[in-house]
Amino acid sequence: MVSMKFPTEKMSSESSFLFFRFMNNRAPSNKRYQPTEYEHAANCATHALWIIPSIVGGILLYLLSDDHWEEISAWLYGAGLSSLFIISTVFHTISWKKSHLRSVENCFHMCDRMVIYFFIAASYTPWLTLRDLGPWAANMRWVVWVMASGGTAYVFFFHERFKAVELICYVAMGVFPALVILSMADRSGLCELLVGGGCYVLGIVFFKSDGIVPFAHAIWHLFVAMGAGIHYYAIWKYLYTPVNQPTSTAR
Predict the structure, then answer these.
(1) CA 42, CA 39: separation in Å to the nearest integer?
(2) Sign of dihedral through CA atoms 167, 126, 79, 148?
(3) pLDDT greater than 60 at residue 137
(4) Residue 54 lies in a domain
(5) Is 160 within the bounds of a domain?
(6) Is 160 left (phi over 0), alpha (psi -120 to 50) or beta?
(7) Signal peptide span per the entry (predicted)?
(8) Domain contains 89
(9) CATH number for 57
(10) Tens of pLDDT along 94-117?
């Protein structure tokens, strides 16, 4: 008996093929996802595009600084922002083109995970340093860097072992320091901070969707870039433009 394929079935199979050619199967919980060639290229491009803007942005804040504390905050924030995009791009490039250098690739994968903690701490630094804070909240200026150091140590000893714990650590560090908002007399920029934070949170959905959504990691990169851009705008507008420069107790 001759089997017949209806046009709808043929179209469905073709669309499925086109859908899955852009991604590999989902990796087991104890292994790292291996992107396709298309995904590798997208992973590199979506963060490489922001390297130069992040460096220029950090320099701009430094040039706008009026005192020592603003210069330190600009330097730390600019370094954290540009390092995030640089290390991510280097790791994804090595992972794509130099897969035989497993030890080097693994080292940069660890650095890629570690720099996220320092990026979060650097993103909070201008707000914690240049805004007036209550007595208890002022301690958060150094607590965020202790948390970043702890996260780095965690990656060093438990890299890729407990992925859920690692994700919880990122979210906790991203959310917990925001409690200082409760002690701020000047809350200008809060809307931008919430929108930028929302971009990161929404991006986490794609961060955990490799093997489910094509280009999931590259989409995560785009959400990171959007969140970082919105937060940079808030820092520039509310902390470094002359009409909005605050008087900080840290000065």
Answers:
(1) 5
(2) negative
(3) yes
(4) yes
(5) yes
(6) left
(7) none
(8) yes
(9) 1.20.1070
(10) 887 765 667 777 888 889 889 999
Look up the pTM and report it: 0.84
Q: Which two tokens stand for residue 81?
A: 């922002």
| Nearest residue to 84 (alpha-carbon basis) of 55, 124, 126, 63 | 55
Phi (first) and psi of residue 162, to 5 degrees: -125, 85
Confidence band of 161 (pLDDT split at 50, 70, 90) = confident
Q: How far is CA 65 from the centre of its chain?
A: 25
Tokens of 67: 């005192």
Q: From residue 105, how far is each of 51, 88, 90, 109, 200 by CA, in Å?
A: 20, 11, 9, 6, 25
Residue 36 · residue 23 · CB < 8 Å: yes
40 in a labelled binding site: no
User: By residue range, what is the domain housing residue 107?
Assistant: 35-244
- On whether residue 80 sits in a domain, the answer given is yes
Cα separation of 241 and 147, whole Å? 30
Collapsing DSSP to helix, strand or coil, 169 comes out as: helix
Q: Is 221 annotated as a binding residue?
A: yes
Query: Does the annotation list 68 as a binding residue?
Result: no
Closest CA to 249 of 180, 146, 179, 174: 180
Q: Provide the percentage of residues in the chain whose pLDDT is more than 70.
A: 83
Contact, 61 vs 236, CB < 8 A? yes
Reported as a single tens digit per residue, the pLDDT across 51-76 is: 999 999 999 999 999 999 999 999 99
Q: Specify the amino acid at residue 7.
A: P
Mean per-residue pLDDT of the chain: 83
Structure letter (DSSP) for residue 185:
S
Helix (H, G, I), strand (E, B) or coil at 160: coil
Q: Is the pLDDT of residue 215 over 80?
A: yes
User: In angstroms, rounded to a whole number, what is the distance separating the alpha carbons of residues 125 and 61?
Assistant: 13
